[in-house]
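Students often ask what a 'structure token' actually looks like in practice. Rather than answer in the abstract, let us consider DUF7674 domain-containing protein, a protein of 163 residues. Its sequence is given first.
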Amino acid sequence: MQEQDVDSIGQEAINEEGKTTVDEAIALIVNSNPELKAYWDNTIDEEYEGSYEENRQDLIDIITVVDYIIEKFRSDDTSDLSAIFANIEEAFQNPSTDAKELIVTGILEGLQNGCDMEQLDFRNGFDKWLGAKSKRAWDGLIYLHDSNDPYEVKAERIKTFID
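Now compare that with the structural description of the same chain:
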């Protein structure tokens, strides 16, 4: 049984080769513009005080990007959102499993939750910036939130939105 587990882990590593990693996705997204990069760097420096690599928590850290986007959206200072969402879309084209989770759960779902809490229009408010793959995942998250379908139906249907 242990050999099978090792083999499946090895196969997963092979399947992940050539895919966008979490580090690559974060770098691509936070480097979308100098202001976002500075905001990211300052937040990471304050949070980790020099121990980022040892203690990082990517799904929590990425909320920095979400907060930045929500603030820009709320203040109607949206000139940089096209570049940010273009880079999110680029990172989402061939992501590793972890990078996909970072984008879907960390960024897209984080944006929807943050906007919902602040009563901002997330259902249609970001449509002009979302790329095709991001928009499909975005709509899938809205479906999960709004649908009264049974869990089994949701679990199967969400695959069509995210894969």
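One point worth highlighting: The radius of gyration is 17 Å. Ask yourself how you might have guessed this from the sequence alone, and why that guess would often be unreliable.
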